[in-house]
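> example.struct
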């Protein structure tokens, strides 16, 4: 038999001492100064600030805000995205919308939607679902064209249906 204390399982240098990292400078606005070549530098850390990267973020935010305003106007709702919630547009009483605009437009889903023949009194829709496997609930999305939906919806003063339960087939129909 061997004595367990004699075995080399104890390392006196373990665990290693935590490495202290200094916090990264976020280049606050009040700490920026303009350079002669048109660039900017941070007076706190001395780093050059990429002006195009700074402008890109501002442009993306402005584009998103403009799109939220456009969707709110089309749907007859109000823009609430500026309050930091996940909802960008709210149509009181029946619809809450999250708006996304940018390069990640789903062209494949759009092609499927455009392949459906259009009729004046009917909406075209694509339903996309996953196949998660046995015992896992399927996730599904329905995709409508915004302009078609707004044209269809404009003929009503309010949604043409009540709560979701009223969409079920009634026995007398």
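> example.seq
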């Amino acid at each position: 038999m061997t004595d367990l204390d004699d075995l080399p399982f104890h390392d006196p240098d373990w665990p290693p001492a935590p490495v202290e990292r200094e916090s990264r400078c976020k280049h606050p606005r009040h700490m920026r100064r303009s350079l002669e070549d048109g660039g900017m530098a941070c007076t706190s850390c001395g780093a050059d600030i990429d002006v195009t990267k700074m402008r890109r973020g501002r442009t993306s935010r402005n584009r998103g805000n403009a799109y939220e305003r456009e969707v709110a106007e089309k749907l007859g709702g109000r823009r609430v995205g500026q309050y930091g919630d996940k909802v960008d547009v709210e149509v009181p009483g029946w619809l809450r919308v999250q708006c996304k605009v940018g390069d990640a437009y789903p062209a494949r889903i759009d092609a499927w939607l455009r392949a459906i023949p259009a009729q004046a009194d009917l909406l075209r829709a694509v339903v996309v679902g996953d196949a998660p496997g046995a015992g896992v609930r399927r996730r599904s999305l329905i995709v409508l064209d915004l302009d078609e939906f707004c044209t269809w919806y404009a003929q009503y003063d309010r949604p043409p249906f009540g709560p979701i339960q009223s969409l079920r087939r009634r026995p007398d129909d």
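> remarks
Strands lie at 32-34, 40-42, 48-49, 78-79, 89-91, 95-97, 125-129, 140-144.
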